[in-house]
């Protein structure tokens, strides 16, 4: 006889929330998530790297991993940061995490009390937005333009928040190929924002996870390379250059923040087994691989931009021309509700992320983020053409529906 169902009524912690069961369905033309190209995941190289790592140090798997993550990988991170971002840290100042999601989450928890105000870009990566809200933050977006955060309105916003007794605790920003808008913040603005941050004693959480995906133009210095006072907390990822399925990222922050952030770590950190594959592969092939994936992504970006030019220009749309990263930010005229259109397009085979998902201030219905990284160039072209067809059809239907009442 089956046992009667046990009830958890009254037993859940007040902090727990119900997560709705989510089926993962990929539409035929998948512009929803910033995935890399599946063909460029270096499977053979990872297998070789894993074998090498296991042959040399595999017996260490009998221990729990180092609390900061595999030492060799932390060393590789320090040389990468020095070479690519121009700042020096020691391996003890680097923490390997389960993707940069965990890195952000640990720092957010170390710095956020429920009710604290946190500033982000006006549109911001949904993952971090969700984490900030989960930590109880009052998230406020600051205005952005084609070059990212505009310093003067940022300072006005801080002053206003202080006046309202909501002094911002910190600024979370994605300065290089911002998610979702794709902008890169120029050096001068970074310097101004640092001045503002110091003036208001407001740390910066810098999420640099797209920096390696530059197709053209010049990489700007990281906030962290412009300022070593400790005001900048730096986060990055291996998801975008290798694969998100590996779940490897890292952060480097002032020692006192690191100690607090680690107090929230559960389960001992990411898999050391995976770290062997990541470090041995990257030691050998990191920069060749980055150059290969960017070659592939350039075609995809150009295919998407070409198709947008052919099909969306006539609708009065505007879109970004990203110099890298993995997406295009599409702005439709105000009467196009991309939030309402999202399920209709998805059902018809084209997935995108509606702009409102990224908006802490609740705007963005006429925006969409289109990721070109995973579909082939052909699928980028076909998918954008199909998206235009569906939107045109739906808008015509809406018009026909509104017209009788309007008469
Ligand atoms: C800005 C930003 N930060 C962090 C992440 C999380 O990536 P991961 O946890 O795979 O490193 C993403 C993923 O898309 C992102 O866009």
Summarize this structure briefly.
The protein has helices at 43-57, 71-85, 99-111, 126-134, 151-163, 187-199, 223-226, 255-262, 272-311, 338-347, 377-406, and strands spanning 29-30, 95-97, 117-121, 138-142, 144-145, 148-149, 168-173, 204-207, 232-237, 249-252, 318-319, 327-331, 350-351, 353-354, 367-371.
How does this model look, in words?
It is a single chain. By secondary structure, this protein is α/β, with parallel strands linked by helices. The protein folds into 2 domains: 29-41 and 287-397, Aspartate Aminotransferase, domain 1 (Alpha-Beta Complex); 43-285, Type I PLP-dependent aspartate aminotransferase-like (Major domain) (Aspartate Aminotransferase, domain 2). The chain is built from 11 helices and 15 strands. The strands form 4 sheets. It has a 7-stranded mixed β-sheet with strand order 2-10-9-8-7-3-4, with helices on both faces. Helix 6 links the parallel strand 7 and strand 8. Helix 9 (272-311) packs across helix 11 (377-406). The protein is globular.
Features:
407 residues; Aspartate Aminotransferase, domain 1; 11 helices; 2 domains; binds pyridoxal-5'-phosphate; seven-stranded mixed β-sheet; single chain; Aspartate Aminotransferase, domain 2; alpha/beta
